[in-house]
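cron nightly-structures :: item 1 of 1
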Amino acid sequence: MPELIVVDATVVDPTVVAADYFQSYSVVGLLAVVGVLFVAVAFGAGRLLRPVVPTPEKLLTYECGVDPVGEGWAHTQVRYYVYAFLYVIFAVDSIFLFPWATVFAAPGYGATTLVEMFIFLGFLAVGLLYAYKKGVLTWT
């Protein structure tokens, strides 16, 4: 006979606790299996239903709008990377704003978090001002 466990002043059989524990993981496992089946059925249906008409144009290497003509090196303008970098900076800023807003709403943290946010936004403003002075933000 298994040994009984006392939890919150009630006697609990360990086999019942283990069954509840594995039942919660069985739901996760079932959901994973359903997800894998959904993806497999979608890919299978796509393979069965799509037309297969290979042509030489379809077999060419194509990337980012640059036709594969001439040398293997293609020149890309640096300004696209700068815009991507600016986007990443402001995406990080917006991600930082959401947890800050929840902490700011908590009692007792208002002034401290407000000062921290203005310091953070000040750093971003200095970076944006620097980018503006360098002429990065003008589209040519």
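cron nightly-structures :: done
The first strand starts at residue 5 and ends at 7.
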